[in-house]
Amino acid sequence: MQRFRAAVEARDVDAMVASLAEDVVFSSPVVFAPYRGRTAVGGLLRCVMRVFEDFRYTDELHSAGQTALVFTARVGDRELQGIDLGTTNAEGLVTALTVFVRPMSGATALAKAMQAELAGQQPPGSH
User: Fold this and answer.
1) Given the DSSP bridges, would you call strands 20-27 and 94-102 parallel, antiparallel or unpaired?
2) What is the pLDDT of residues 35-70, one digit of tens each?
3) How far is CA 27 from CA 35, 53, 54, 76, 77, in A?
4) What is the pLDDT of residues 80-103, one digit of tens each?
5) How many CA atoms lie within 13 A of 119 on its CB side?
6) Torsion 12-24-33-127 (CA) sign
């Protein structure tokens, strides 16, 4: 998750996408089904970077198989806290990424903003 974190902190979307495995699975708090594959997840991350304001990682937690990147951000006038929970493969590429967000008002603001960003941008079957 080091490459992914560095890319996010640099706000370098191309490097973020390059840090993903081809078969990455992304579970989002705003859609029911996960996004699968580097192209689909990359498109989603581009939208996320436009939606989040004042994004910053505040902590990093490790277990034997996962890394949790704790963050704060703002969507419009709503502040939120969250975790990017991820796993990587032997090459250090992200294979799974699950996002958790709180409080509910922040999650709702995020969902509305992401729906607006994604409107008309999703290819069929990308999530």
Assistant:
1) parallel
2) 999 999 998 898 888 888 999 999 999 998 899 999
3) 6, 21, 22, 23, 25
4) 999 999 999 999 999 999 999 999
5) 6
6) positive
